[in-house]
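User: Working on a comparison across species. This one is Phage portal protein from Algoriphagus ratkowskyi. Can you predict its structure so I can line it up against the others?
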Amino acid sequence: MINIERIDHVLITIPLNTRADARRFYTEKLAFSEILGMHPRGAIWIQLGDIELHILEEDGHQNASGRHPALVVKDLEAAKEFLQKENIDIQYSSKIVGRDRCFFRDPWGNRFELIEFI
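Assistant: Here's the predicted structure for Phage portal protein from Algoriphagus ratkowskyi:
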């Protein structure tokens, strides 16, 4: 069993070379606040209440898309043990300060991130 606490963020994708337009749309047109920083893969992070929206340029919408919800867990090691027991492949990505994380995909290719704040 994976003990989920809450959704941390949702990542959406935009076409290549549209980053500036996306930043303007979300921060100027919709008046959301940008979370400044050097984010993984050059993503734009936007604050939406207590949830973050991550925006990433992606070439096309392949089956291995980077779009995903991120779920905060109480014990990432226990969650990984559960996934391994169920023969679910665990993937890793770049490191983020203050967070341990991993990814997995459901049988249809949907990507999920599990995060434990440290």
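For your comparison, note: The beta strands are 4-14, 33-35, 44-48, 51-57, 68-73, 99-105, 111-117.

User: Helpful, thanks.
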